[in-house]
Amino acid sequence: MKLxxxxxxxxxxxxxxxxxxxxxxxxxxxxxxxxxSEDPQELLSALDQAIQRLEWLIxxxxxxxxAATAAGQSLTEHLARRDCLTRKVQAYQELAxxxxxxxxxxxxxxxxxxxxTVDVRALQKQADSLSxxxxxxxxxxxxxxxxxxxx
Length: 151
Prior knowledge:
Number of helices: 4
Low-confidence stretches: none
Strand order of the largest sheet: 1-2
Structural class: mainly alpha
Distance between the termini: 9 Å
Largest sheet: 2 strands, antiparallel
Shape: flat
Oligomer: single chain
């Protein structure tokens, strides 16, 4: 099984677990004399199986990410870099947007003039550059996911 397939199965299991939890909640109590639409014991069994499979997948995905390398670094290192780059890009874009929105906001000359404290153009240029780096890194990770066997 390729790492990408395991990641897809993990996502599917997470959705299934959430659905099973909701179905369990919906069938946890019924009016006296009524029967639940689904057997809670069967749902619990299905939930337990899904969680057991998820635990196995998470373990093997993490082991694979630590052992596998791409472009001279482990996938774990690339994933950490991607997460941090994502946060940085979001912060830069948010700051640029806020600063750009504050420029020249006044209805009359007597109102206080709001000025940006950052160079919006330079900040947006940095955000664009970081976004490109993020896209390239994500492509590298995706390529590795489809070429590396799950351990």
